[in-house]
């Protein structure tokens, strides 16, 4: 057993003699308790080591606003500039031009480097830049099903020497090509007598029909203007 400290008399009161090491021992014990407390992980009551839960706070980030691009479209000698989001469909471009020209949007055809552009695509998917210029073709109204053969009309591409001379015209399989030729020259402002039409290297006659010339929808007719 440890003996109690000796008593000293001071007048009538008796005071215990304190060892000078006691305060240091108290501090050392407190530090040990703090170290033991800090080394043991805090757990919620009732959770084992395998049930530790980590709570992570996630701050939702605001998505950046889509970038805007000006789509340039050339149609019948006019250049249209249409602002569009890069993630918007190109259908909006066709609708804008159709409203400006007062035509049915279904008659418009978008071309990029002489290839048709699906209207479901976007400026990003087509990799369009502000330097690109799309071409827009106004197709003639589709006639009703051909009465003679009962087959639907076909769309033929008439291409001259320049890119702007491309026109898409619909015609019945058994209709004379004279209607198609007149429609093309009227659109381009040409004299009918100065224009010749060729398919697979063979000059076409006005009385011929697409069926007789073995034409299918999407075929290209070469247009040559005599000087």
From TrEMBL:
InterPro entries: NFATC2-Int_DNA_Repair, Rad60/SUMO-like_dom, Ubiquitin-like_dom, Ubiquitin-like_domsf. Keywords: Nucleus. The keyword Secreted does not apply. Residues 154-227 form the Ubiquitin-like domain. Pfam families: Rad60-SLD (PF11976). SUPFAM superfamilies: Ubiquitin-like. It is found in: Nucleus. One of its GO terms (biological process) is positive regulation of transcription by RNA polymerase II. GO terms for cellular component: nucleus. It comes from the Eukaryota. The keyword Repeat does not apply. This is NFATC2-interacting protein. It comes from Callorhinchus milii.
